[in-house]
Amino acid sequence: MKIMRIIILLAVGMNIAVSQAFDAKNFYKAFDKYRLAPENLMLMRHAFVEQTLHKLCENSDILSMERVGTSVKGRSINMVSFGHGETRLLLWSQMHGNEPTATAALLAVFNYLNNHQDEPFIKQLLDRLSVHIIVMLNPDGAQVFRRRNAMGIDINRDARLLRSPEAQTLKAMKERINPQFGFNLHDMGGRETVGDTKKLLTIALMAPPFNRANEDSPTRVRAKKLVVYLKKILDEFMPGHLARYKADYMPRAFGDAMQNWGVSTVLIESGMHDGSDLHFVERMNFIALFAAFDAIAKDKLEHSDAKEYAAIPLEGPEVFDILISNALICNGDLIRPFRADIGVNRDATLINGRIEYNSSIEDIGDLDITTGLKVINGKNLIVTPGLIVSGTEETEVEKLLERGITTYVTGNGAAEKGKDAVRVRLSGKKILQLKSMPDGKLNLKELPVYTVDAAKAIGLKNTGRLQKEFIADLLIFRQADTGELDFKNLKYVIKNGRIVFP
Ligand SMILES: [Zn+2]
Questions:
Q1: What distances in angstroms separate CA 436 from CA 394, 415, 440, one per listed residue?
Q2: Potential cystine with 191: which of 55, 318, 378, 389 (Cβ 3.0-4.6 Å)?
C-alpha cells in the first residue's frame, strides 16, 4: 500500500515535471511571434517603451506596472512585476542608454507571459517567484543613444554616492524588494571575441565580485551556479560564442554592490551575432531570462557546479569590422610602401534623431591576434587612401567610384583656395563640377597629390591618408608589376568603413 502510494506520487510528480519542463527550443521558436521592439534598436526610445508597457500591462491578469522613479529630464522609470512567490528577483535593463538589447527582449518576455499565463510552466513561475523588472533605467540616455544619463554620470558607477535619480531609483527598489537574485542587463561593444578562439562573443556572463580579493560568498556562489547553468542552456544555440565578462572589482558598480549587499547578481552582456538572424542576441536574452526564472523557481541551481565558472573562457580581443591582412600599403605620405594588416571599424551614432555612421582606421600593423567580421586577404593587393578630387564633368557616382574617388569637392577651384569647399559624401546623388579626374592609371608617386595635399587644401580633417584614426576611405587594387595603379585592377572601394564598390 505504502509502496503503491509512493509510486503513484512519483508518477504524478514526474508527469508534472514533464509537462512543466523548460524547453529552450520552444522559446527559441516562440521569440519572433512575441517580439515587439522596432527593427533598429537605436530608434527604440522611452515613449515607445512606456506605451508598449502600458498596453502590455493594462489588461493583463499577471503583469502590473508601476512608475518607480523619474529621470533627470522628467521621463518615467517604470517597473513591471509578475508572480506572487517567495523568491524575489530584481532585474534592470538599459542603465546605459545605448544598450537596448535586453529591453527589447523583456518586451517579448512580457508579451509571452500574457499569452501563456495558463500554461503549467508559467503558472509555476508565478507561484514560486516574484519578479520585478525596471525596464530602461536610463531613458534620457536612451533618447540620444548614449551611455550616460543627462547629468553625464555613468549610472553604473553611481552605486555608492547615488547622485543620479536613476541610481537612487534602483537602490530604492533594491531596499523595497530585498531580492535574493539580481540581473544586471547590458550590451557590449559588439566586437569582442571569446578567449583566443577569434569567435565572435554573443553573450558574456559574470557573477560580479563583491570584494577586491575576488572571494566567494554563498551569495556569489549562487550567482556563479546560475551562470554555469545558463551557459549550458545557451551553448546549445551558440556553441563557442559565450564568454565570461572580464572586470575587476568595482565598488562603484551596481553588480558588484548588489553582490556585496547579499543579492546573488548575474551580469548578462549582449554582444554580437554574425549571421542572418538580426534578432539572434535578443532571442538569446529571451531564452536566458526564462531559463533563469525556471532554474531559480525549481531549485535547479543545486545541481549546478560553481567550480565550472572559472573554466568559462574570458572575453578575448575585439575584432574589426573589416580586416585587410598583409596588404602592401601606400599610405598617402611620401614613404616607401610597406606590408601590414589594416583594421577598420564603423560605428553608428544618433545625431538629431538620425543614425549616422562614422568610420576610422582603427589599427595598422600585426593584427593577427584577432580577425574581422569581413576579412580581405591582402597578399596580392595594394591599399591606398581614397582619392579626393575637385571639379570634373563626371556626374555618375558609380563612375567616380570606379576611379577611386571617395571624396569630391564642389565650387570652382575650391581645392586650390581652401575656401567654400563642400565635402559631399557619395550617396547616390548627382555630382557636379569635378575637374582633376584621374585617367585610367595613377602613378604611385602621384598618389599624395590626390590625397594629402588635396585634403589639406580644402581643410578636411582625418581623411586622405591611411593612418590610424583617419576616416576609412580606402582603395584596394590587385597588385600589378608596374609602378602604376590601374583602375582596371581596382578590386574594392571602401567608403566611410563600408565596401561600396563593386
Ligand atoms: Zn553597460
A1: 10, 10, 13
A2: 318
Which of the pair, 406 or 74, is modelled with greater confidence?
74
Q: How far lies 10's CA from each of 3, 4, 297, 298, 332, in Å?
A: 10, 10, 20, 17, 77
Tens digit of each residue's pLDDT (9 = 90 or more) over 266-288: 999 999 998 889 999 999 999 99
Q: What distance in angstroms lies between residue 187's CA and the mean position of ligand 1's atoms?
A: 6
CA of 355 to the centre of ligand 1 (A): 20
CB of 151 closer than 8 Å to CB of 72: yes
Cα(270) to centroid(ligand 1), Å: 9
**47 Cβ partners below 8 Å, 6+ apart?**
none
**Residue 301 predicted with pLDDT over 80:** yes
Which residues have a beta carbon within 5 Å of ligand 1, which is an ion?
Answer: 96, 99, 186
CATH no. of 320-501:
2.30.40.10
Give the pLDDT confidence score for residue 389 in this predicted structure: 72
**Residue 122 Cα, ligand 1 centroid: separation in angstroms?**
29
